[in-house]
Each structure stands twice: as structure tokens, then as C-alpha cells.
Amino acid sequence: MAASNPSETFQNPMDIARRAGNWFIAIAVVFILLGTLAIVAPLVVGLAVTVLVGWLLIVGGVTHEIGAFRSTGIGRAIWQVIVGILYVGAGLYFLTHPLIALGTLTLFLAVVLFAEGVMDVVAYFATRGAEGSGWLLVNAIVTVLLSAMIWRQWPSISIWAIGTLVGINLLFNGFSRLMLGAAARSFGHKATA
């Protein structure tokens, strides 16, 4: 079915771009507010992350237990049961001892950041002739330094590290969505003008 006026067809996507821009801006404001709250109260956010991880471990354990009944072989079923018990046990431990679990998550974060830094160094040497590959090395150095800082200050850093990093992540996500939303709104307004 053809549109009676070709400009109507073109205006509809611009309306969508403008509305999407408004939604991106609204979501950005929520992210920025949540990020600010997380930085102001990092212990609360760290404990919330610990509780979330605890529940995710329990759900994963139950899923493994259910998977044991659907397994084709007895060895696979036994393995699913063992893994499921470990997941549920770890999840219950996280829920009943959130401060200790927060320390565990912080130490795990240091290990993951160190591994990421090492991988970035490897990626840099694999692509060092490419334009912009120096940023991989910069990222690797910063990541390894952050990992070392967390490692050296552990366990005292556990009280604020996870919450603060979640807050910073939410702030950057909020600002990037704010810029994307503003660009979409601007595009929608310019196209209809």
C-alpha cells in the first residue's frame, strides 16, 4: 500500500528517532542518579550486588539440579548434581554472610582485572602495528594497576570497591546514553525542519 504523500513516510522514522531520543535521555537520567547514589553509598550497593550474586548462584544451582534429571548418562547426571550442590551452597553462603562474600567478590574482581590486563598486553603485541593499538597497552597498564591496587588494599577495600565501581559504570552508561539520546533528538528535529 503506497502512502499518499511521500513526506509522511519519511516523517514517521524521524518521529521514532525523536521519541527514542527522549527515552534514552530518561534512562540516562535514571542511570546517572543510580550511579551517584552508588558512589555515595558504596557499601549498600556492594551488599546488594553480593545478595544478587547469591541469588543467581542459587538459581544456577537449581538449574543444574534440574539438568541432572535430563542428562543422558549417569556420569553427566552426577556431575550436574555436584555442580548444582556447590552453586546452591555458595549462594546460601553469600546470602548468609554478605560481608565476607563482598570481600570474596572484591578479590575475584582483582583477579579478573589482572587477567584482563594480561589479555590486553597480548592483544597489543598481536596488533601493535595497527593504528590506535597503543590504547590497548594504555588500557592494559591501567587495568593491571587497578588490579594491584585492589589486591594490595584487600580486604579493607572490599567495603567500597564494588559499589564505587558499579556507580562509576552506571554514571558512564548514563552519560553515554544521554549523549546518544541528545543526538537522536537533534537528528529527529533537524530532519523534520
Please give a handful of descriptors for the protein shown.
mainly alpha; 193 residues
The percentage of residues in β strands lies in under 5%
Mean pLDDT: 83
How far is the first residue's CA from the last residue's CA?
27 Å
User: Number of DSSP helices?
Assistant: 6
Radius of gyration: 24 Å
Order of helices and strands: HHHHHH
Domains, number: 1
Main beta sheet strand tally, sense and closure: none
Q: Choose one word for the global shape.
A: globular
> How many E-type strands?
0
Helix content percent band? over 70%
Structural class: mainly alpha
Low-pLDDT runs of 5+ residues are none
Give an overview of the whole structure.
The protein is mostly helical and 193 residues long. The chain has one domain (14-192). 87% of the residues lie in helices and 0% in strands. The protein has helices spanning 6-40, 42-69, 74-96, 98-127, 134-153, 161-192. Helix 1 (6-40) packs antiparallel against helix 6 (161-192). The protein is globular, with a radius of gyration of 24 Å. The relative contact order is 0.20.
